[in-house]
Design a protein that fits this description.
This protein is of the alpha+beta class. It has two domains: 178 residues, Sandwich (Jelly Rolls), CATH 2.60.120; 52 residues, Homeodomain-like (Arc Repressor Mutant, subunit A), CATH 1.10.10. Strands 3, 4, 5, 6, 7, 8 and 9 form a seven-stranded antiparallel β-sheet that branches. Strands 1-2 form a two-stranded antiparallel sheet. A hairpin with a 2-residue loop joins strand 1 and strand 2. The longest helix is centred in the middle third of the chain and has 24 residues. The radius of gyration is 20 Å and the shape is globular.
């Protein structure tokens, strides 16, 4: 369970176990909770009842089937709860070493885990994922699998719990895509843009095509992209290329020049400069 290390008025600081940063909290029921923040991301699934989720300056009504992400460092709380049962999944993806290359091909993943948490205030929570009763039952089954592994601590539990968490992330991502595929919401369109870049990072960036896919103006697109990912489209693609090249170099069977060209670069000297700038050391150090 997460440990409370410091408590102040309207704020609670917690941390996750370093050995395995994935914790399931079953709040049966979830009562009122004052404004607080975490040093990790939080996936929230409402299983029954209702209540109000609030942040520093906004509030949203919750009901069974609602799913949303709380980013680390963001303050939130609950009030006006009525028999509200929820699951908090506390995690740190970077520390879990979870392979996400295939998951990132799903527009629903980018919408649910990256974009929606950043624009929730602007969208007034209207773009949250809301599971059907059947979907909620399936998700709850996966959560039970994760809970069993993290509680029993039998040999291999970290691998199994991570695998189940990947199942849950993939399932929720598919549910999000299915929920909005008929209407092609602006958020899902934008998520499709990020998925496209993820799958075609070796190719030259075609900004006019991305603008058409997103149905946004150029200024709105660039602003939304930076808000969602923290980078411009060009910088985002650059980091995808560097990450791919790093994996190739760590395999030990490829030269720096070959890794650069295999990752979409046309100039190995430019690649080396950008690699050092982003990673803090030259690419040859990976070998």
């Amino acid at each position: 369970m997460p440990i409370f290390i410091k408590s102040m008025k309207n704020k609670v600081h917690r941390y996750l176990p370093e050995e395995f940063p994935l914790v399931i909290n079953l709040q049966y029921p979830q009562g009122p909770m004052s404004l607080h923040g975490h040093g990790f991301d939080e996936l929230v699934i409402i299983q029954r009842g209702k209540g109000v989720h609030f942040t520093d300056n906004e509030s949203y009504e919750l009901s069974a089937g609602d799913v949303f992400i709380i980013r680390k460092g963001r303050s939130h709380g609950y009030r006006d709860t009525t028999n509200m049962h929820l699951v908090n999944i506390l995690f740190q993806l970077e520390a879990m070493n979870m392979p996400r290359s295939e998951l990132k091909k799903l527009p629903g993943y980018h919408a649910l885990f990256m974009i929606q948490p950043e624009i929730r205030g602007q969208a007034r929570f209207e773009h949250r994922l809301q599971l059907t009763p059947e979907q909620l039952a399936h998700a709850s089954g996966i959560i039970e699998d994760i809970t069993n592994e993290t509680q029993r601590h039998t040999p291999g539990y970290e691998f199994m719990a991570t695998a189940h968490f990947m199942r849950l992330a993939g399932f929720l991502s598919r549910c999000y895509s299915k929920m909005y595929e008929k209407n092609q919401s602006p958020m899902l369109k934008f998520a499709s843009v990020i998925s496209h870049i993820e799958q075609h990072f070796r190719e030259p960036l075609d900004i006019p095509r991305l603008l058409k896919m997103s149905s946004m103006s150029r200024s709105t697109f660039f602003r939304a992209f930076k808000k969602s990912t923290g980078f411009s489209p060009i910088d985002y693609q650059l980091r995808l290329r560097i990450s791919h090249a790093s994996k190739l170099l760590k395999s030990g069977d490829i030269s720096v020049k070959e890794a650069a060209f295999a990752s979409g670069f046309t100039d190995s000297n430019y690649f080396s400069r950008q690699y050092r700038k982003i990673r803090g050391h030259p690419p040859k150090k990976e070998k």
